[in-house]
Amino acid sequence: MFTLFFVDDLPTTVGCTYQFANEDANHAIRVLRMQAGAEFMLSDGNGAWSQVKAIEVSKRSMQVQVMNSGYQEALPTFITVVQALPKGDRSKEAIELLTESGVDRIVPWSASRSIGKGTDKFAITAREASKQSRRFRIPQVLELATTAQICEAIKLSDLAIVFHESASHKLSDQISSHNVQTLLIIIGPEGGISDEELAAFESAGAKVALMGRPILRSAHAGIAAVSAVSALLRVW
Fold this sequence. Notes:
RsmE, 6 helices, alpha/beta, cytoplasm, 5-stranded mixed β-sheet, Alpha/beta_knot_MTases, 2 domains, rRNA (uridine-N3-)-methyltransferase activity, transferase, CATH 2.40.240.20, Alpha/beta knot, 6-stranded parallel β-sheet, elongated
């Protein structure tokens, strides 16, 4: 599998040359030690990609030639995950894992029991995790949302599921149709979703589901939820 980098002005004409000269190029040259003849992937982060070959390498940029090009269609289900902010580095870990799971949009949530605060570098984290997981579509990372805003998002979704340890229904019992174009998954903070927040989500139309017996950390619950729901909806 070829290494992936992102560029704003993706070259797509096979045979054309392109000056690869952003921060990713600097990383490829100085850290990965790429030389002339190296082949790798470039993407615009929105599905388009090009396989390129380095033909000339300088200190901070390289001239590449497009060998192949294409476009990756989005999956039929658009997945949004609302992630209550964990504390410290666990917020970054949550963004990385959600990106690697293939979600389309990440919404940091300021829950009443959230400990984490900063969201400044979440978009950068999602971009870097997209390179690592070799996905051609970088997930959208929105601004910090309130509970009221999450309720509005629930109303606009085909299916919204909030995971809670007190739920009486298994996840598999809460999915009755595979025809879901917009999916919203809500992950609470380490201290749990409050009764008031849970009631608001249910009132807006969200289904409450149990995620197995073990209680996962907030930063880890998202990737487990996305995996389970994607399998049940036959997205995977």
